[in-house]
Amino acid sequence: MKYVTNTNDSRLASAQEHLSYIDPAADSPWQTYLAQVDRVAPYLGPLARWAETLRRPKRALIVDVPIEMDDGSVRHFEGFRVQHNLSRGPGKGGVRYHPEVTLEEVMALSAWMTVKNAAVGLPYGGAKGGIRVDPAQLSRKELERMTRRYTSEIGIIIGPQQDIPAPDVNTNPQVMAWMMDTYSMNIGGTATGVVTGKPIQLGGSLGRVKATGRGVFVTGREAARRIGLKLDGARVAVQGFGNVGGVAAELFAEAGAKVVAVQDHTGGLHHADGLDVARLSAHVQEAHGIAGFRDADLLGGDDFWAVDCDILIPAALEGQLTESRARRTTAKMVLEGANGPTLPAADDVLQSRGILVVPDVICNAGGVTVSYFEWVQDFSSFFWSEDEINARLEKILVGAFAAIWDTAEKLKVPLRTAAFAVACERVLEARVERGLYP
Ligand code: NAD
User: Fold this and answer.
1) Does ligand 1 lie within 6 Å of residue 340's CB atom?
2) CATH number of 211-358
3) Where are the domains of the chain?
């Protein structure tokens, strides 16, 4: 960190001129992101002059995705791809299929990708995509048609050197395979590097499926060590039991922790002595949710947040950890597996209660880090072993976490502000060095 001047210059925080398509009053993920940028602005020194760059996406594409349904009718879905910042390299970020996807949400998710990629030191800008759809209502063929049409529509801005999508909520290696195939068909060649998170036989990387959950575990372990919390016997509560939450729960259980509570979109479970995570994972594979799992007590609605635990892992959607939930948690540490799970007011409560928050932009960066490995392997057509991948992942995350921890101590700020300080300095320096065109 070169720029550590803490100035009260009000121009820094008030520079935002609202974008016309954003509701300034909304308690949305985009507003959460803007509040996070406002908190880091005083630590950016002379680079703060460029901070407005962080407050607006470079490019946002809205696409119509019409598909023929199996019954012969035609339905239209709304799709998005947002490239928030490309100063440090091609865009990188996942694609989400969810009925509540909005442009604002995708903008926030793309901005968090800018910060995450820079915080970890990956040579990417930030991007994200999504379709407003409930994929559970589509047949496999309908899902394939929708994915292919969406890929064609955003094909004008994605590419191995332009912007590289990956899986996010409700998308998986099969969806990535369809995206890779569609893009390749359209350019008349094979472009494995256009998406990451692909199946292994199509240029995917070993270790990618578990990488985000593994990153949550690695950064959580590093944080626990620093606050003197032993993982062996620690009680863990996880919201979201998908790609991120399910794997994180598995790895904490393997390290001797007790996963005492789990919540997903189908309900909540509690077991004071620890759930059998392997059996719960097998159940979720079959039942597509935790509901119906035996050997645990049911946990109603908001009770999840008040469960006795040492580590709380929100790994579902944004805005879940509200101010009142932050007051109720008994955790000593929050590991943000999800993107943007903690509202700014909740952040303040957690800080005042002395609860450590390991922010999303470092905590869940394991996925994009192994996506980067996949992209590099695709370019060289030379593939690494899983041990090699996990060792490189561990090295990058442990190093990035240590740098952010040291910055937090130096600036006397929470880890989130420290991560933003490290990342925004990198993004804005690249911005300044590239210069303003024309
Ligand atoms: P997923 O689709 O595999 O799982 C999502 C989980 O969230 C499911 O268990 C679902 O039941 C649960 N959920 C959905 N709505 C819920 C609600 N209202 N209450 C409680 N639980 C709910 O998705 P994922 O890939 O695990 O992503 C989860 C989060 O992690 C998202 O915020 C995503 O952006 C973030 N993330 C994912 C990756 C990745 O590589 N997949 C990488 C970084 C960050």
Assistant:
1) no
2) 3.40.50.720
3) 2-201, 211-358
